[in-house]
Amino acid sequence: MRRDRDEQFHDFVVSRRPRLLHTATLLTAGDTHMAEDLVQATLTKLYVAWPAFQRADNPDGYVRRVLVNALIDEKRRVWRHRERSMAELPDVAGSTPSGAGDAGEAVKLALRELPPRMRAAVVFRYFYDLDVAATADALSCSEGNVKSQTARGLDRLRAALNSPTFLSQGATR
Hints:
The protein is mostly helical. The protein has helices spanning 2-27, 32-48, 50-55, 59-76, 103-112, 116-127, 132-139, 143-162, 166-169. It comes from Paractinoplanes pyxinae. Residues 106-157 form the RNA polymerase sigma factor 70 region 4 type domain. Pfam families: Sigma70_r2, Sigma70_r4_2.
């Protein structure tokens, strides 16, 4: 029985890990190192709760919820507030990462400024095109909360992206 469970989980990981990593990368606003950590934490939690996952009416929603909870847990860690991972180390402290002038990089920087749940609401609604009900299920909140989180998140993203100083400051506000 244990062997069957391990094989099922292995098959799940092989088939779903790339999609989980993509989602985690969006949820972390492009921070691939944190995305890897989130996927690992999510897979660990799923393995422990594998029987519950298999009984779930909506397995995709279950996985999204575990991933968002892992993001929120990670953001609560005190040491995360003091460090920021980067693909390349800057030559000068406080300089903007290379490629920040690109529209995609600007969106990632703006997304980083949103609180984790607000960011998750925006990502699920607009990057994954989930409806309000599916997003509410993934975030374990009401549909009204999803609507307000996405509306405020979009307002904050628009303001950040339209700010002339946003990219020059490297989104350190």
